[in-house]
Amino acid sequence: MPGTVHLVGAGPGDPGLLTVRARELLTNAECLVHDYLVSKPILELVPASCVRHYVGKRGGADSVRQDDINALIVRLAASHRNVVRLKGGDPFLFGRGGEEAAALADAGVPFTVVPGITSGIGAPAYAGIPVTHRSSSSAVVFVTGHQKHAPGEPEPDFPWPTVVHVETIVLYMGMHRLAENCASLVAAGRAATTPVAVVQWGTHPVQRTAVGTLADIAAIAKARKLGAPAIVVIGDVVRWREKIRWFDLPAQAPLHGRRILVTRAADQASGLAAALRQRGAEAVLAPLATSEPCPPDELLAALAQPHDWIAFTSANAVRAVWAALRAGGRDARALAGSRLAAVGAATAAALAEHGLHADLAPGGDGGGLGQAMRQAGGASALLPMADNARPELAATLAAAGWRLTTVTAYRTIPCDPGLDLAQEHLDGVALASAATVERFVTWAGPHLPRLVAAGCRFYAIGAHTAAALGTHGLACAGIAATPAVEDLANAIARDLGQAGDPGAT
Questions:
Q1: Are strands 282-285 and 259-262 parallel, antiparallel or unpaired?
Q2: In the chain, at which end, N or C, are there fewer CB atoms within 10 A of the end residue's CB?
Q3: Which domains, from first to last, does the chain contain?
Q4: Residue 24 has pLDDT above 50, yes or no
Q5: Which residues are CB-contacts of 479 (< 8 A; sequence separation ≥ 6)?
Q6: Which of 432, 431, 388, 411 has its CA nearest to residue 291?
Q7: DSSP letter (8 states) at residue 428
Q8: 291: confidence class by pLDDT, cuts 50, 70, 90
Q9: H/E element, 179
Q10: 3-class DSSP state for residue 89?
C-alpha cells in the first residue's frame, strides 16, 4: 500500500505563521518535496534524516515541469510512509495543489491537505495593509498575473473588465507585466490615481514595500529594484499602511532588512537567532563548532566525591553532566550534596530544564562567577569544563585556597557550517567566544577582506571575544552588556539599527 502525501502550505515565509499541523508534519517528515519560496528557517525544522527533493519554480528560469512534479510525488509515495509536499503560501491558491491532488487521486495515493496562510493576505498584513476594511473595501479578488499559455505563444491578457471595479485587487506573480497590467486596469475604467502597493518578500526579514498609483507604481518599483517574488495590492486599502505599518517600522524592528551571521553551535544558535529576528533581522546560521560529551567515567567519579559547589560555565557543561549521569544510571540525586552555580541566565535555564535550581547565577564571566562563589562561602568545587575552557574561574577560586576538581566534560569540535560565504552579503557577524573568533577567521579566510570592505561589522558577547577580534585587526562594533544572547542582540541593534528602511515608503 502506498504511503500518504501531505500537501502542506508553508505560508508566506515567516516560520511563525506555520499552522500547528504543518509544523508537526515537518518535524516528523520522512520525505520532503519543496518549492523555491519555502523559507530557510522552515526547512530547518525538517529532520536531518529526511530525504529532500527540490522542485522550485522561478519565473524566467529553468524549472521542473508540473507533470514531472506530479509523477515524482506519486512515485515517492511508493517508497515512503509519509511524503510532505511543501508549498509556499496555500496549496490551493495559485499553488497548483489542485493539480497535484488530482494526480494523487488518479494514482490511488492517499493524501491530505494542510492549508497555509496565502501570501496575498500575509504579505499585505505585514506591510500594514488590510485587504478589506469597513471604510475602504468590502470585497477582494485574487488574480494571477501569469496566465497559462502554450509554449511559443504570447501570454494572453487577463480579462480585467470582469474585476476592474472590485474594491481590492490582489495580484500574484505580476511583476513581469506590472506596467501592462496597470495600464490595462486604467483602460478598463479604474482611476489612474488608485493607490497601489508592491510588497516584495512579504513576511521575510528582507521585506520591502513601495507605494504609488496605477499611473506610476511600475516606475517606482523599477527605481527601487523591487522584483519577484512580490504581491501587488490595488485599492484604497493601501492608504492604511501610513497609519498601521508595523513589521518594518524602525522603532519596532531596528534591524529590519539586516542580515546577521550567527556563528554559535547549532544546539545553541536558536536563542540568539530568535532575539535577532524579534528585532527584524535575518539570522543567517553558520555553526562553526559542535560540542561532544567526553566519556563519562572521570566525571562520574568526580561526582561521587563531596564538593561544596558544582560550577557550570555553559549550557553545554550542564548537558555533559546530565549525559554522564544517564550513562551511569544516575539522576539529579547525585548532585544533592552540592550547591549549584551557573555563570549566567542561559546556563541557569539549562539547569532548570532538568528541575535543578541554580543557587548562584551572577552573570558576567568565569572570574565573576568565582567571586560570587567565594562571597557565598565554601571551600571546594567541581568544575566540569570544556576542553578549551578559560582559566578565570579556576584561578579565582584557587587564589582563595579552594580545593578544586577540574574535569574536561565536553569537547568543542570545529565543523563545516555548510554556507558559501562567497555568495553572502552580511551586515554583521555575532561572535560568542574568543575561540569562535579564531574559527571564524580561519573559515572566512580570503572572503574576510571583502566582508570588511562591504561594511560588515563584528559584535562580541564579552571583552575576551572583543580582544580576540582585535588580534586579527577586526574592529568590534558592539559588546553585549552581559554575556546573554538578548544583550548581544541589543548591542547589534544599537549599532546597526537604522533610522529608516531605505527600501520602504
A1: parallel
A2: N
A3: 4-116 (3.40.1010.10), 121-244 (3.30.950.10), 259-288+416-496 (3.40.50.10090), 291-414 (3.40.50.10090)
A4: yes
A5: 459, 460, 461, 462, 463, 465, 466, 491
A6: 411
A7: E
A8: confident
A9: helix 178-187
A10: strand
What stretches of 399-438 adopt beta strand conformation (E)? 403-414, 428-431
Q: Which residue has the cell 544583550?
A: 487
Closest residue by Cα to residue 125 from 246, 252, 253: 246
Name the residues annotated as catalytic. Answer: 35, 57, 173
pLDDT higher than threshold 70 for residue 225: yes
Instruction: Find where cell 537604522 sits.
Output: 498
C-alpha cell at 504: 520602504
Over residues 397-450, the pLDDT tens digits come to 999 999 999 999 999 888 888 888 888 889 999 998 898 999 999 999 999 999
C-alpha 4/C-alpha 78 separation (Å) is: 9
Q: What share of the chain is helix, strand, coil (3-state, %, to 5)?
A: 35, 20, 40
| Amino acid sitting at position 149 | H
Beta bridge partners of 360: 341
Other C-beta atoms within 10 Å of 107: how many?
17
Q: How far apart are CA 246 and CA 61, in angstroms?
A: 34
User: Average pLDDT over the chain, rounded to whole?
Assistant: 91
| Contact status, residue 283 vs residue 273, Cβ threshold 8 Å | yes
Q: Is the sign of the CA dihedral 373, 379, 385, 389 positive or negative?
A: positive
List the one residue out of 359, 354, 314, 318 whose CA is nearest residue 339: 359
* DSSP three-state, residue 67: helix
